[in-house]
Structure formats: structure tokens, C-alpha cells
Amino acid sequence: MEDFYRGFAQRARDLAENADPFTRRRLLALAQRYDLKSKPGSGGGRSIPPPRATPPTILFSGSGEA
Predict the structure, then answer these.
(1) Which residue intervals make up region (Disordered) (predicted)?
(2) Which of 35, 33, 41 is nearest to 7 (CA)?
């Protein structure tokens, strides 16, 4: 997967060489994001969210009447 993102980053840089200033900035920013994703362990890819905290079971024990 790292090679995939690295290739996209290089392609964006290549396109930026012949682009107008606005598009060049956008393409170079895109290349930078792809570079971050291409580094293993950088956290640039999708991450698994932390597990949800569950309330203590004592809140649910009882007769169920208010």
C-alpha cells in the first residue's frame, strides 16, 4: 500500500510542475498527504477508533422501576 500512495504523490508532483499557481499549491498539498500515508506507522491511514466506555453494570441492576 505504501508504494501505491508514494506513486500517487509523485504523480501529483509531476502534474504540479506545469500547473497554474493555485492548482500547483493544491497538488503539492495532496502529494504531501499521500507522502504521509505512504509511511508505515505514521497514522496517515485509517485507524480503528478506541473502544467505547460502557457504564458500570450496577446502573442496570435493580427492579427496573423508577
Answers:
(1) 35-66
(2) 35
